[in-house]
Amino acid sequence: MGPEELAIIMSPQFINATFRAGEDWYYGMLERTQEANRLAQHRHSFEVANARYAVVNHQLLHDAREQNAKWKAFANDLVRKHDDYAVLARRLLDEEIAGRKAETNAKRAVEQQLADEKSRSADKDNEIAQLKQDWNWFSNTLDTTHAALTAEQQKVAALQAENEKLRATLSAAESDRQRLHEDNAAFLSAADHFEQKCKDLKSDLTRSQQVLHEEEAEHLNLSHDLRDASLVNEALSSAPLLALSLMEQTHALWAAQGKPSMMEHSLGSHYRVDGHPLTVREYLWFATLMREMAAHHVPDHLVSAHCPVAQRGDFLTRPVTIQEKRPD
């Protein structure tokens, strides 16, 4: 539907004409209905009125169908025109968008080309500036090289003069070297003699240190033996009184029980190292002495020497068994 059709449809004249046609149709239908009602009121002309009513009703239905068909055709025409207008508008919009895109792409291409030209121009400017810098550097390097060459020539002349001096010095040094060689031979001979004396002194020192270590070890052993002997003497000094007190307590216990003294009875649980059983008196003595030696930290070999009993490990904790009769 084009703009002209829309303008016609939306115009006041078209709208008023449409409303007037609707009103005419409505009032005509109302008038025919009233006519049918009047005819129906007359009983004597019922058949005529009925026939006319049927005709009017048929006419109304026919008119309504025609009007409905007209309105439907009109609405379909409006829809078709609207669809045509939408297609046209869409096509025009697509063409406008495509044109704008093409214009934008062309503008971007021109801008990109301009940027590339600027970049190439900047690169060329940089190359020219770099060439200028390289030329300045080469010129400065050439001047520096020329100055260095002049200085080197002066150094060569100075080195030649210095070389002459070195030759004279080298000749004198050769004479000194010969003299030093002779002195060195004499020094080496004296050094060999001194080294031999050092070896002899070192050997004497080693022997002296060995003797000293042996004497220190012997002194340490004697010191330990003296300390152990002192500990044994302390234990032997305190053990008799304790053993005597223990024996007296044992006598008193037996007397309180009405038993005779069993000090000389043999034990069935404790023996000497030679296998003979200990007497009660010997057991009390050795038990007291072993406790005192343990209290004074007497070495184990001295405890064994002064307490010659069998199974000394559990001697003090082993239950005591006294034989009732003395051995014959």
TrEMBL record:
Keywords: Coiled coil, Exonuclease, Hydrolase, Nuclease. Residues 100-218 form a coiled coil. GO terms for molecular function: exonuclease activity. It comes from the Bacteria. This is DNA repair exonuclease SbcCD ATPase subunit. It comes from Acetobacter lovaniensis.
